[in-house]
Amino acid sequence: NILFIDLHYVDFNMLSSLLFFSGQAVVVYEWRAGKRCKSFQGHSREITKLCCFKGSSLIFSASRDKTVLMWDLGRDTEPVQEFCGHELVVNGVAVSPDGSKLCTGSRDNSMHLWDIELGECLQKHTISRNLVTHVCWVPGSTSIVQTSEDKTIRVWDSRTWQVTNTFPAKQYIQTHCDISSNCYHLLSSSNGFGGQGCEATLWDLRQPGCKVAEYRGHLQTTACCVFVPPRPGYPALVASSAYDSSVKIWDQNTAACLYTLTLDGSGPLVSLAPCDCSSLLCASFNTGLHQLHLDQGAMPSLTEVARF
Protein backbone atom coordinates (compact mmCIF):
# COMPACT_ATOMS: atom_id res chain seq x y z
CA ASN A 1 0.00 0.00 0.00
CA ILE A 2 1.17 3.51 -0.78
CA LEU A 3 1.10 5.98 2.09
CA PHE A 4 -0.02 9.32 0.66
CA ILE A 5 1.27 12.37 2.44
CA ASP A 6 1.13 15.15 -0.12
CA LEU A 7 -0.21 15.71 -3.60
CA HIS A 8 0.41 18.30 -6.30
CA TYR A 9 -1.28 18.66 -9.66
CA VAL A 10 1.37 19.35 -12.30
CA ASP A 11 1.43 20.49 -15.91
CA PHE A 12 4.66 19.66 -17.70
CA ASN A 13 3.00 19.17 -21.09
CA MET A 14 1.89 15.81 -19.74
CA LEU A 15 -1.87 15.42 -19.77
CA SER A 16 -3.43 15.08 -16.33
CA SER A 17 -0.20 14.30 -14.52
CA LEU A 18 0.17 14.60 -10.77
CA LEU A 19 2.85 14.09 -8.17
CA PHE A 20 2.64 12.08 -5.02
CA PHE A 21 5.12 10.33 -2.84
CA SER A 22 5.40 6.99 -1.13
CA GLY A 23 8.09 6.49 1.44
CA GLN A 24 11.32 7.59 -0.23
CA ALA A 25 9.98 7.75 -3.83
CA VAL A 26 8.48 10.61 -5.85
CA VAL A 27 5.95 9.29 -8.34
CA VAL A 28 4.55 11.01 -11.46
CA TYR A 29 1.17 9.54 -12.34
CA GLU A 30 -1.24 10.18 -15.23
CA TRP A 31 -4.46 9.74 -13.29
CA ARG A 32 -6.85 10.03 -16.25
CA ALA A 33 -4.95 7.33 -18.12
CA GLY A 34 -4.43 5.33 -14.92
CA LYS A 35 -0.73 4.78 -15.38
CA ARG A 36 2.49 5.57 -13.61
CA CYS A 37 4.88 7.63 -15.74
CA LYS A 38 8.04 7.92 -13.71
CA SER A 39 9.50 7.34 -10.29
CA PHE A 40 12.40 9.16 -8.60
CA GLN A 41 14.35 7.66 -5.71
CA GLY A 42 17.33 9.19 -3.93
CA HIS A 43 16.37 10.07 -0.38
CA SER A 44 17.62 7.90 2.47
CA ARG A 45 14.51 8.55 4.58
CA GLU A 46 10.81 9.30 3.96
CA ILE A 47 9.75 12.29 1.87
CA THR A 48 7.65 14.91 3.67
CA LYS A 49 6.70 17.51 1.03
CA LEU A 50 6.80 18.16 -2.70
CA CYS A 51 6.66 21.25 -4.85
CA CYS A 52 7.08 22.03 -8.52
CA PHE A 53 7.67 25.16 -10.55
CA LYS A 54 4.85 25.85 -12.97
CA GLY A 55 5.95 25.95 -16.58
CA SER A 56 9.11 23.95 -15.96
CA SER A 57 9.95 20.28 -15.53
CA LEU A 58 11.55 20.73 -12.11
CA ILE A 59 10.33 18.89 -9.01
CA PHE A 60 11.58 19.43 -5.45
CA SER A 61 11.24 16.87 -2.66
CA ALA A 62 11.87 17.52 1.05
CA SER A 63 12.71 14.65 3.35
CA ARG A 64 13.29 13.37 6.85
CA ASP A 65 16.91 12.86 5.77
CA LYS A 66 17.33 16.67 6.27
CA THR A 67 17.78 17.38 2.55
CA VAL A 68 15.84 18.65 -0.46
CA LEU A 69 16.47 17.05 -3.85
CA MET A 70 15.70 18.59 -7.26
CA TRP A 71 14.56 16.33 -10.09
CA ASP A 72 14.01 17.05 -13.77
CA LEU A 73 11.02 15.28 -15.26
CA GLY A 74 12.59 15.45 -18.72
CA ARG A 75 15.86 13.81 -17.68
CA ASP A 76 16.92 10.57 -16.02
CA THR A 77 15.86 9.55 -12.54
CA GLU A 78 18.96 10.85 -10.74
CA PRO A 79 18.63 14.11 -8.75
CA VAL A 80 20.09 17.12 -10.56
CA GLN A 81 20.67 19.21 -7.42
CA GLU A 82 20.88 18.63 -3.67
CA PHE A 83 20.23 21.19 -0.94
CA CYS A 84 21.94 20.25 2.34
CA GLY A 85 22.14 22.34 5.50
CA HIS A 86 19.20 21.65 7.77
CA GLU A 87 19.81 19.76 10.99
CA LEU A 88 16.39 18.07 11.24
CA VAL A 89 13.53 16.94 9.01
CA VAL A 90 12.55 19.42 6.25
CA ASN A 91 8.78 20.04 6.26
CA GLY A 92 8.44 23.06 3.98
CA VAL A 93 9.60 23.76 0.43
CA ALA A 94 8.55 26.48 -2.04
CA VAL A 95 9.95 28.00 -5.26
CA SER A 96 10.15 31.73 -5.94
CA PRO A 97 7.86 33.15 -8.66
CA ASP A 98 10.82 33.64 -11.02
CA GLY A 99 12.11 30.11 -10.45
CA SER A 100 15.56 31.19 -9.24
CA LYS A 101 15.25 30.70 -5.47
CA LEU A 102 14.10 27.91 -3.18
CA CYS A 103 12.78 28.39 0.34
CA THR A 104 12.93 25.53 2.84
CA GLY A 105 11.72 25.23 6.43
CA SER A 106 12.57 22.61 9.03
CA ARG A 107 11.90 21.28 12.49
CA ASP A 108 15.33 22.67 13.37
CA ASN A 109 13.52 26.06 13.77
CA SER A 110 15.17 27.53 10.67
CA MET A 111 14.17 28.89 7.29
CA HIS A 112 16.72 28.73 4.46
CA LEU A 113 16.88 30.54 1.11
CA TRP A 114 18.77 28.81 -1.70
CA ASP A 115 20.10 29.60 -5.15
CA ILE A 116 18.49 26.83 -7.21
CA GLU A 117 21.07 26.71 -10.00
CA LEU A 118 24.08 26.61 -7.67
CA GLY A 119 22.51 24.71 -4.78
CA GLU A 120 24.01 27.25 -2.38
CA CYS A 121 22.39 28.56 0.81
CA LEU A 122 22.02 32.33 0.47
CA GLN A 123 20.27 33.08 3.76
CA LYS A 124 19.47 31.29 7.00
CA HIS A 125 17.38 32.47 9.93
CA THR A 126 16.57 30.53 13.10
CA ILE A 127 13.72 31.43 15.46
CA SER A 128 13.21 29.62 18.75
CA ARG A 129 10.33 27.09 18.66
CA ASN A 130 9.61 27.76 14.98
CA LEU A 131 9.11 24.11 14.01
CA VAL A 132 8.05 24.70 10.40
CA THR A 133 5.10 22.67 9.09
CA HIS A 134 4.44 24.22 5.66
CA VAL A 135 5.75 26.98 3.37
CA CYS A 136 4.02 29.01 0.61
CA TRP A 137 5.61 31.62 -1.64
CA VAL A 138 3.13 34.39 -2.41
CA PRO A 139 2.74 34.51 -6.24
CA GLY A 140 4.32 37.54 -7.88
CA SER A 141 5.77 38.68 -4.58
CA THR A 142 8.91 38.60 -2.46
CA SER A 143 6.86 37.37 0.51
CA ILE A 144 6.83 33.86 1.96
CA VAL A 145 4.27 32.50 4.41
CA GLN A 146 5.01 29.63 6.78
CA THR A 147 3.06 27.76 9.43
CA SER A 148 4.58 26.28 12.55
CA GLU A 149 4.08 23.87 15.41
CA ASP A 150 4.25 26.90 17.74
CA LYS A 151 0.75 27.69 16.35
CA THR A 152 2.02 30.85 14.67
CA ILE A 153 1.94 32.03 11.04
CA ARG A 154 4.88 34.14 9.90
CA VAL A 155 5.41 36.24 6.77
CA TRP A 156 8.99 36.60 5.53
CA ASP A 157 10.57 39.08 3.11
CA SER A 158 12.91 37.11 0.85
CA ARG A 159 15.03 40.23 0.18
CA THR A 160 16.01 40.85 3.80
CA TRP A 161 15.26 37.32 5.10
CA GLN A 162 13.46 38.81 8.07
CA VAL A 163 9.96 38.20 9.46
CA THR A 164 7.82 41.17 8.46
CA ASN A 165 4.57 40.05 10.09
CA THR A 166 3.44 37.47 12.63
CA PHE A 167 -0.21 36.47 12.79
CA PRO A 168 -1.89 35.93 16.18
CA ALA A 169 -1.18 32.44 17.50
CA LYS A 170 -3.98 29.92 17.15
CA GLN A 171 -4.98 27.42 19.82
CA TYR A 172 -3.60 24.41 17.94
CA ILE A 173 -0.69 23.60 15.63
CA GLN A 174 -1.09 25.02 12.13
CA THR A 175 -0.63 22.19 9.62
CA HIS A 176 -0.91 23.73 6.14
CA CYS A 177 -1.42 27.02 4.28
CA ASP A 178 -2.55 28.22 0.85
CA ILE A 179 -2.64 31.59 -0.94
CA SER A 180 -5.62 32.85 -2.96
CA SER A 181 -5.13 33.44 -6.69
CA ASN A 182 -5.45 37.23 -6.21
CA CYS A 183 -2.97 37.09 -3.30
CA TYR A 184 -5.42 38.88 -1.00
CA HIS A 185 -6.07 36.01 1.38
CA LEU A 186 -4.33 33.20 3.23
CA LEU A 187 -5.85 29.92 4.40
CA SER A 188 -4.38 27.92 7.26
CA SER A 189 -5.54 24.62 8.74
CA SER A 190 -5.38 23.40 12.30
CA ASN A 191 -4.50 20.32 14.26
CA GLY A 192 -7.04 19.12 16.84
CA PHE A 193 -9.21 16.28 18.10
CA GLY A 194 -12.82 15.66 19.10
CA GLY A 195 -13.94 18.72 17.16
CA GLN A 196 -11.68 21.03 19.16
CA GLY A 197 -9.39 22.95 16.86
CA CYS A 198 -9.69 21.09 13.53
CA GLU A 199 -10.67 24.29 11.71
CA ALA A 200 -9.46 26.20 8.68
CA THR A 201 -8.93 29.95 9.03
CA LEU A 202 -9.12 32.70 6.43
CA TRP A 203 -6.73 35.63 6.94
CA ASP A 204 -6.38 38.95 5.09
CA LEU A 205 -2.82 39.27 3.77
CA ARG A 206 -3.35 42.97 3.14
CA GLN A 207 -4.02 43.50 6.85
CA PRO A 208 -1.64 41.04 8.49
CA GLY A 209 -3.15 39.43 11.56
CA CYS A 210 -6.72 40.20 10.44
CA LYS A 211 -8.81 37.02 10.75
CA VAL A 212 -11.67 37.06 8.26
CA ALA A 213 -13.46 33.75 8.90
CA GLU A 214 -13.17 30.30 10.46
CA TYR A 215 -14.44 27.10 8.91
CA ARG A 216 -15.44 24.70 11.69
CA GLY A 217 -16.96 21.25 11.42
CA HIS A 218 -14.22 18.64 11.07
CA LEU A 219 -13.90 16.27 14.02
CA GLN A 220 -10.19 15.53 13.68
CA THR A 221 -7.06 17.33 12.47
CA THR A 222 -7.64 19.38 9.32
CA ALA A 223 -4.63 18.31 7.26
CA CYS A 224 -5.11 20.48 4.17
CA CYS A 225 -7.03 23.56 3.05
CA VAL A 226 -7.10 25.08 -0.44
CA PHE A 227 -8.82 27.80 -2.42
CA VAL A 228 -11.05 26.38 -5.14
CA PRO A 229 -10.27 28.12 -8.47
CA PRO A 230 -12.91 30.82 -9.01
CA ARG A 231 -15.87 30.36 -11.34
CA PRO A 232 -17.60 33.40 -12.89
CA GLY A 233 -21.04 33.93 -11.37
CA TYR A 234 -20.43 31.54 -8.47
CA PRO A 235 -19.46 32.28 -4.87
CA ALA A 236 -15.83 31.93 -3.84
CA LEU A 237 -15.19 28.49 -2.33
CA VAL A 238 -12.58 26.88 -0.14
CA ALA A 239 -12.07 23.17 0.53
CA SER A 240 -10.62 21.29 3.47
CA SER A 241 -9.71 17.65 4.11
CA ALA A 242 -9.19 16.00 7.47
CA TYR A 243 -8.21 12.94 9.42
CA ASP A 244 -11.93 12.25 9.96
CA SER A 245 -12.07 10.92 6.34
CA SER A 246 -14.09 13.89 5.10
CA VAL A 247 -13.75 16.70 2.60
CA LYS A 248 -15.78 19.87 3.18
CA ILE A 249 -16.64 22.61 0.69
CA TRP A 250 -17.22 26.04 2.24
CA ASP A 251 -18.54 29.40 1.11
CA GLN A 252 -15.39 31.50 1.50
CA ASN A 253 -17.22 34.66 2.54
CA THR A 254 -19.98 33.35 4.82
CA ALA A 255 -18.04 30.32 6.21
CA ALA A 256 -21.14 28.18 5.60
CA CYS A 257 -20.40 24.50 5.00
CA LEU A 258 -22.04 23.77 1.66
CA TYR A 259 -21.12 20.09 1.27
CA THR A 260 -19.51 17.31 3.26
CA LEU A 261 -18.22 14.21 1.48
CA THR A 262 -16.97 11.22 3.46
CA LEU A 263 -14.90 8.26 2.29
CA ASP A 264 -15.48 5.32 4.61
CA GLY A 265 -12.35 3.30 5.24
CA SER A 266 -10.08 5.84 3.58
CA GLY A 267 -8.24 6.80 6.72
CA PRO A 268 -6.98 10.38 6.94
CA LEU A 269 -7.57 12.51 3.84
CA VAL A 270 -4.23 14.21 3.85
CA SER A 271 -4.06 16.43 0.78
CA LEU A 272 -6.09 18.31 -1.83
CA ALA A 273 -4.99 19.61 -5.23
CA PRO A 274 -7.23 21.80 -7.42
CA CYS A 275 -7.33 20.64 -11.04
CA ASP A 276 -9.64 23.32 -12.41
CA CYS A 277 -12.67 25.34 -11.31
CA SER A 278 -14.87 22.23 -11.14
CA SER A 279 -12.69 19.49 -9.66
CA LEU A 280 -10.14 18.66 -6.99
CA LEU A 281 -7.93 15.65 -6.43
CA CYS A 282 -7.92 14.14 -2.95
CA ALA A 283 -5.25 11.82 -1.50
CA SER A 284 -5.90 9.32 1.28
CA PHE A 285 -3.82 7.00 3.45
CA ASN A 286 -5.72 3.84 2.58
CA THR A 287 -7.78 4.17 -0.60
CA GLY A 288 -5.63 5.95 -3.17
CA LEU A 289 -6.72 8.98 -5.18
CA HIS A 290 -10.21 10.40 -5.66
CA GLN A 291 -11.54 13.18 -7.84
CA LEU A 292 -14.06 15.55 -6.30
CA HIS A 293 -16.49 16.88 -8.92
CA LEU A 294 -18.07 20.31 -8.46
CA ASP A 295 -20.29 20.29 -11.53
CA GLN A 296 -22.74 23.13 -11.98
CA GLY A 297 -26.16 22.40 -10.53
CA ALA A 298 -25.22 18.93 -9.26
CA MET A 299 -24.32 17.51 -5.89
CA PRO A 300 -20.54 17.10 -5.54
CA SER A 301 -19.22 13.56 -5.69
CA LEU A 302 -15.99 11.70 -5.02
CA THR A 303 -14.87 9.24 -7.69
CA GLU A 304 -11.94 6.86 -7.25
CA VAL A 305 -9.32 7.42 -9.94
CA ALA A 306 -6.44 5.31 -8.64
CA ARG A 307 -5.94 2.61 -6.04
CA PHE A 308 -2.54 1.24 -5.10
Description of the structure:
This protein has no helices and 30 strands. Strand 13 and strand 14 form a beta hairpin. The strands form eight sheets. It has a four-stranded antiparallel β-sheet with strand order 1-2-3-4, with no helix packed on it. A four-stranded antiparallel β-sheet has the order 5-6-7-8, with no helix packed on it. Strands 9-10-11-12 form a four-stranded antiparallel β-sheet, with no helix packed on it. The chain starts with 6 loop residues before the first strand and ends with a strand. By secondary structure, the chain is mostly beta strands. 0% of the residues lie in helices and 54% in strands. Keywords: Repeat, WD repeat. Pfam families: WD40.
Summarize the structure.
By secondary structure, this protein is mainly beta. Helices cover 0% and strands 54% of the residues. The N and C termini lie close together (6 Å).
Radius of gyration, Cα only, in angstroms?
18 Å
Helical content class: under 10%
Our count of helices gives 0
Secondary-structure-derived class: mainly beta
The amount of beta strand, in percent, is over 45%
Order of helices and strands: EEEEEEEEEEEEEEEEEEEEEEEEEEEEEE
- Low confidence ranges: 1-5
| Overall pLDDT | 90
> How many angstroms does the end-to-end distance come to?
6 Å
The coarse overall form would be globular
Keywords: Repeat, WD repeat
